[in-house]
Amino acid sequence: MPTPNLRALVGTPKTKIGTFLFEFATPGIGQILKAAGAEFAVLDMEHTGFGFDTVRSVVRYLQAADLPSIVRVPSQSRHHISRALDTGADGVMVPIVSSVAQAKAVLEAAKYWPDGTRGVALGLAHERFAMRSEPLLPRLAEQNARTAIILQIEDPRGAAAADEIAAMPGVDMLWLGHNDLSVALGEPGAFDHPDFAQAEQATIAAAKKHGKSAGRLAVDAKQGAEFARIGYDFVSIAGDVWLLQQAFAAGIETVRRG
């Protein structure tokens, strides 16, 4: 069974719920998340030290569970973006995209001709190692159509350019990097500050206006529900580390009090 198409979920009104993987790159992780009801998982390279050997394995684990995979790459470097997609990831999340020019460079690295200049090597992981004899052009178009491009808005320049960025063909989602945005605004952690609220609202509005998706990471399910209420349609309930800690801490408290 093919993995559900991530791009088909973009811009749809239903809230899509997943989580981040920061630590548990284990063979069962995809099936564990799928059994719990997850609709996507983001494997983080930016803050974990995960390398591409780990990415290759985890993408296979998620594919085995029919769970769409997103790789957050550590930079806007071309080789980070294209290599993540060559592992077979369904989407790539790129940090600190602050301008149309940067967004265009991401698309160039992520998309095959004629939409970009991604280096061509087919019949590998992103094609599920299929032995195919079709002409080259339809296969390039197929990969362009399945690859979701998620750009992180993490500073005031990115928020100001959100409408132009979201309007670009090939950009599928704007993901608010809340911590970095608050720091860039000079108000670390002040998520109720008027400047933060304005930037957030501009990002969500830009995504909705152009039929794209808006995403954000929540600290817990309660906050995730609030994010869905204000317009995010992709919501990550925390990450693997914090989910385990939260559940275990709550269990300890229950036992102690009992």
What features would you describe in this structure?
It is a single chain. This protein has 258 residues and is of the alpha/beta class. It has a single domain, classed as TIM Barrel, CATH 3.20.20.60. Helix content is 44%, strand content 16%. The protein contains 11 helices and 8 strands. The chain has helices at 29-36, 52-64, 78-86, 100-110, 136-146, 156-160, 162-166, 178-184, 194-209, 221-230, 240-257, and strands spanning 16-21, 40-44, 69-72, 91-94, 148-153, 173-176, 213-218, 234-239. An 8-stranded parallel barrel has the order 1-2-3-4-5-6-7-8, surrounded by 8 helices. Strand 1, helix 1 (29-36) and strand 2 (40-44) form a beta-alpha-beta unit. Helix 3 (78-86) packs across helix 4 (100-110). The longest helix is centred in the last third of the chain and has 18 residues, at 240-257. The N and C termini lie far apart (46 Å).
Helix tally equals 11
Total domains, how many? 1
CATH superfamily: Phosphoenolpyruvate-binding domains
- The termini sit apart by 46 Å
Layout of helices and strands:
Layout lengths: L15 E6 L7 H8 L3 E5 L7 H13 L4 E4 L5 H9 L4 E4 L5 H11 L25 H11 L1 E6 L2 H5 L1 H5 L6 E4 L1 H7 L9 H16 L3 E6 L2 H10 L3 E6 H18 L1
Parallel strand pairs: 1-2, 1-8, 2-3, 3-4, 4-5, 5-6, 6-7, 7-8
Helix pairs in contact: 3-4
Brief characterization of the structure:
This protein is 44% helix and 16% strand. It is built from 11 helices and 8 strands.
